[in-house]
Specification:
The chain has 65 residues and is of the alpha+beta class. The protein has helices spanning 37-45, 54-59, and strands spanning 3-8, 13-16, 23-26, 33-36, 49-51. The chain has one domain (3-59). The protein has a 3-stranded antiparallel beta sheet. Strands 2-3 form a two-stranded antiparallel sheet. The radius of gyration is 12 Å and the shape is globular.
C-alpha cells in the first residue's frame, strides 16, 4: 500500500493509526502525518488536507520558479 504525507488544513480529522484501534484527533496545528494514498486523495478533494511532501511543491511551484 502506498502512503502519502498530508497536513490537515481545515477542521479536525479522526486519524486511526494502524493496529491501535484508537482514534487520534488531527488539526491544522498538528505536524504532517501519513495516510493511505486513497485517504489522502479523499481528504484533499474535501479541502480538509493538503500534501505536505515534495509532491505538493511540484504541483504548486513557488512564484519565484
Amino acid at each position: 500500500m502506498k502512503f502519502k504525507l498530508i497536513k490537515i488544513i481545515n477542521g479536525t480529522y479522526g486519524y486511526k493509526k494502524d493496529g491501535t484501534g484508537s482514534v487520534l484527533p488531527k488539526t491544522p496545528s498538528d505536524p504532517p502525518f501519513e495516510v493511505s494514498e486513497a485517504e489522502a486523495k479523499r481528504l484533499i478533494a474535501l479541502k480538509v488536507a493538503e500534501y505536505a511532501d515534495k509532491e505538493k511543491q511540484e504541483k504548486n511551484p513557488s512564484p519565484e520558479d
